[in-house]
Amino acid sequence: MWTITGFADEVADDFEEQLALMTELGVRFIEFRSAWGVRVLDLPDAQLRLAKQMLDDAGICVSALGTDLGKVRMDDDFTVHLDRAHRAADVAWFLETSEVRGFSFYPPTGEDPAMYRKQVIDRLGRMATIVDQAGARYLHENEKGIYGDTPERCADLAAHLDPHTFRLILDPANYVQCGVRPFDEAYPLVRSATVYVHIKDATFPDGTVRPAGQGDAQIPEILHALHNDGFDGYLSVEPHLGAVDAFGALSGSGPWRTAHEALIDVLRAEDAEWA
């Protein structure tokens, strides 16, 4: 059975508004990226405690921390970033989640990403080891522009890092924005390491984001294949149907509903079970 979760911060900055819509829609998990306009790793301890109490009161759990780990340049100070990984471990433990979303660094503009392969693997391994101390895994998202934005490099990272501490998120729309057909070209390479899926669609050639099943990201094909092989992970609604902001996008409650309904339509067509 699949479990629906999502980036509730696309509903509103206010955490109470986020949880209210999740409750209305029956979504019992969130991918916690920000609250009150503050990134989850930057929330003061008092606000973090308040967020945990609000989550508990609403009966909503955290499927993953939507952190910005690894979303920095290769020539940025990595020592500072390791401190952020330690913070992620602490927050993951406090919010009782076993998954930490992260990235794989931006190579310098114009340089061949392959030059940085060894360094990227080393850095990811160190961060994954840190979050593992809190019983969490580092889940790598294939975002455009980072080292791991192609299925070949994502598969290579997964093959060379400890599978107990490092796995992959499959974001079909992000592959479209890199000129990759997600099911035909990416899925065969990354499926074995994929444990979590972001649900947003996108169109060729401009990468415009659309609700699930309304673009070129081959989401029905991907979900059909996942259904057939018994995938039982999270499907995370990431609408991106509003203005892009520092966290991703502020879509609002209406577009969030639209994105959620589009996913449900695809699941119904697949005759899949979800929670």
Brief account:
The chain has 275 residues and is an alpha/beta fold. The chain contains 9 helices and 12 strands.
CATH class term? Alpha Beta
Total strand count, please? 12
CATH topology, what is it called? TIM Barrel
The residue fraction in helices comes out at 40-55%
Which regions have little confidence, pLDDT < 50, spanning 5+ residues? Answer: none
Explain what the structure shows.
The N and C termini lie close together (7 Å). α1 (15-25) packs parallel to α2, α3 (78-95) packs parallel to α4 (117-132) and α5 runs parallel beside α7 (182-190). The strands form 3 sheets. Strands 1-12-9-8-7-6-5-2 form an 8-stranded parallel β-sheet. The chain contains 9 helices and 12 strands. With 275 residues, it is α/β, with parallel strands linked by helices. The protein has helices spanning 15-25, 45-58, 78-95, 117-132, 151-160, 172-176, 182-190, 219-228, 253-270; strands spanning 3-6, 29-32, 34-35, 38-39, 61-69, 99-102, 137-141, 166-170, 194-199, 201-202, 209-210, 234-237. The model has no long low-confidence stretch (mean pLDDT 95). The protein is globular, with a radius of gyration of 17 Å. The protein has one domain: TIM Barrel.
Features:
alpha/beta; two-stranded antiparallel ribbon; 9 helices; 275 residues; eight-stranded parallel β-sheet; TIM Barrel; single chain
